[in-house]
Automatic annotation (TrEMBL):
The chain crosses the membrane at residues 45-64. It comes from Physcomitrium patens (Spreading-leaved earth moss). The gene is LOC112281542. This is Exostosin GT47 domain-containing protein. Belongs to the glycosyltransferase 47 family. It is found in: Golgi apparatus membrane. InterPro entries: Exostosin, Exostosin_GT47.
């Protein structure tokens, strides 16, 4: 109908002068209508008749068929109804070529606006293929998350420990990524591919600790699943794929270092990107693959339940604090002594020192003791890293890290030398003198740096994600490794 009205307007106003425009040719105003009528009567009727015939022709052959198509094919009349029907692939051949082109163009634009969710990361305003950077990372990235069978991840969440223990970063990262604006549902657009496998959620009945005996086979089964159903693993050999290995020795999947080194990283994972808590400054077989060091998981909600006031307002009446496993007579296990003997020295040397509060067993509310402490001891265990480092920072207690050659997470963003102390393992016998010296000199400076909110935020996997938290730093580090992406930027 719109096209017909344009024709009538064009012929009626441009070709035929209006009735009133010729009254000026008459000698007086009383004669004007008669003269005008007699002079223009036949041509005007002829033209009007032609216009009426043309209108009937257009009505019968163009407009009525389209209207019937709208009514039969869609309950919505008009142009919008045809657009929706076109998006469902039901457009009929009776539509004219001109109308088809117009509606096809609108359908294309409408389809772009109706992307299934906000994970599509293209600039719709300019229609360029340059990706957005919604999280303000170093570079914009897109990550595809494999939809694995529930036996690889979701089923394990029936045990609430799965999402709360020190290895639970594998759950936290997956959960945040599922609703992140950098996730894409189109694998062809992805820079990286995330394989969500929870290998730390099987707990031993005796100790309650995660059992990693099935980890290698579990990971391999997940890789077999994705590689036989989609081409992206085989395309890159796993180079652009991401695993989480938040265990004692990362992707070596063993608690004891000698055993971990003997087994090494599984062959199928060695080309991939591994997010792991383990890290040392020198070469180690368990960090031979490309990796990003992440902090161990500490529950943000649990931490928030204890922290009622800013760290600087806490009354800290405990000088040095440690609560955890300390063996008086450590056993030799596969040629190794737990904590390399450090915790034994700590207990024997300082358990009766009034400045030290050392307890060999944890309690449910040990966080309250951290809030009261000035220095929190973080000695090596089976592995060099410890969740106590994160807990100490979160609770405003200066971490005293006793683990030679340890590498700390997110050193690009956290000035660890400014917020913590590092003590060599062989210097443990004189730890009291070292701490007293710090307390007398630069303790206030360390605490001032430590109590900055961005330090606590960087070590916690918050949900929902906020800029600068632990998961955000994972994404930011990934964005610096776009050379591994199959897509050329």
């Amino acid at each position: 109908m719109h096209r017909v009205s344009v024709v009538l307007k064009s012929n009626g106003h441009r070709e035929i002068p209006s009735y009133s425009s010729f009254t000026s040719f008459s000698k007086n105003k009383h004669e004007a209508p008669v003269a005008s009528h007699s002079y223009w009567e036949k041509p005007r009727y002829l033209v009007l008749g032609i216009c009426i015939l043309f209108s009937v022709f257009a009505l019968c052959f163009f407009i009525l068929p389209a209207s019937m198509e709208f009514t039969v094919g869609n309950s919505e009349p008009g142009h919008q109804g045809l657009l929706r029907k076109n998006l469902r692939g039901l457009q009929t051949e009776e539509t004219t070529n001109a109308l088809s082109e117009e509606i096809g163009e609108e359908s294309k634009n409408k389809e772009w606006r109706l992307k299934p969710d906000h994970f599509t990361l293209f600039n719709t305003s300019s229609l360029l293929t340059t990706p957005f950077n919604p999280l303000n990372l170093t570079n914009g990235i897109r990550i595809y998350v494999y939809d694995l069978p529930a036996k690889f991840n979701e089923d394990w969440l029936a045990d609430e420990r799965c999402s709360n223990h020190l290895f639970a970063a594998e759950v936290a990262i997956h959960k945040v990524l599922m609703t992140s604006p950098i996730r894409t549902l189109d694998p062809c657009e992805a820079d990286f591919f995330f394989i969500p496998v929870y290998v730390s959620c099987k707990f031993t009945p005796k100790t309650g600790f995660p059992w990693l005996g099935q980890a290698r086979k579990f990971m391999e089964a997940a890789v077999n699943h994705v590689s036989t159903r989609m081409e992206f693993w085989n395309r890159s050999g796993g180079r652009d794929h991401i695993f989480v290995a938040s265990h004692d020795y990362g992707a070596c999947f063993h608690t004891l270092e000698t055993e971990a080194i003997a087994h090494g990283i599984p062959e199928f994972m060695r080309k991939s990107l591994i997010l792991q808590t383990f890290g040392v400054q020198d070469f180690h077989p368990c960090q031979a693959a490309e990796h990003i060091q992440i902090p161990p998981y500490v529950s943000p909600s649990v931490a928030a339940s204890y922290i009622k006031d800013p760290p600087e307002r806490q009354k800290r009446n405990i000088f040095a604090f440690f609560r955890g496993k300390m063996e008086i007579n450590p056993k030799n296990v596969s040629g190794l002594v737990y904590s390399r003997g450090v915790r034994t020295v700590l207990y024997k040397k300082f358990s009766h020192n009034r400045r030290f509060l050392l307890k060999r067993h944890r309690t449910d509310n040990y966080q309250l003791e951290m809030l009261r402490s000035t220095f929190c001891l973080c000695p090596v265990g089976w592995a060099p890293w410890s969740p106590r480092i994160v807990e100490a920072v979160v609770h405003g207690c200066v971490p005293v890290i006793i683990a030679d050659n340890i590498s700390l997470p997110y050193s690009h963003a956290i000035d660890w030398t400014g917020i913590s102390l590092s003590v060599r393992e062989h210097d443990v016998p004189k730890l009291d003198k070292i701490l007293l010296n710090v307390a007398a000199t630069n303790l206030s400076t360390i605490q001032h740096n430590l109590w900055k909110e961005e330090n606590r935020r960087a070590l916690l996997f918050t949900d929902p994600l906020v800029k600068g938290d632990a998961t955000w730093h994972v994404f930011d580090r990934l964005s610096t490794k776009l050379e591994r992406s199959f897509i050329k930027h």
